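Re: weekly structure request thread

Next one in the queue (214 aa):
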Amino acid sequence: MGSFSGFAVTIRQMFKPRVTVQYPTAKREKPVRMHGRHVLNLYEDGMEKCIGCELCAGVCPARCIYVRGADNPPDDPVSPGERYGFVYEINYLRCIHCDMCIEACPTGAITETKLFEFSFANRSDAIYTKQQLRVDGDGRARRQPWEHWIGGEDDHTSAWMRATSPSGNAAYEGRVAWSEELGFGSRDPERGQSAGQPGGAHGETSETGGGGSR
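Done, posted below.
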């Protein structure tokens, strides 16, 4: 009877919904706050959000971020502040996608997409430069030849940052905490942090921090 009971388990599994997809032509839907490849965001007028403060590099536990700030040119400023990120590099051979850099950023300059499929031909490709990390003219991540993009892995790049930055304080509910982003405008305000929402005052809902309208 033992062998027959084993077959029963196999037969039951045959009628359950499949969890696999035809990868790489299709991908499973990822959580809104999944940690993936970073992007450097711009304001709607095209100016850089990064002010070269180097807080992201200082807080990174893997020491994979290198930032060197410089003074803004008076006649042609790069960012609204006094300084901007002259050099910005991330080494993805060391990055652990902990999102601490996003937590530390005071301007919301660096956020993460949901892309994690990398296929580097050489080690130098794993070190992303500022030009590669900067969003394009539509506010989207710049696609690199060794990345596997399907669909909108960069639709909700601010999701995790917006969900965790107020530390669950219900006073931030309904408040737009970040400036407008190129291509996306103003993101939706914080939601689901009051005691009456699922998860309590420090809880999270599946849609908190979703992307705004185009």
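Residues 22-172 form a domain with the Alpha-Beta Plaits fold (CATH 3.30.70.3270). Strands lie at 38-40, 65-71, 83-91, 110-112, 127-128.
Next request, please.
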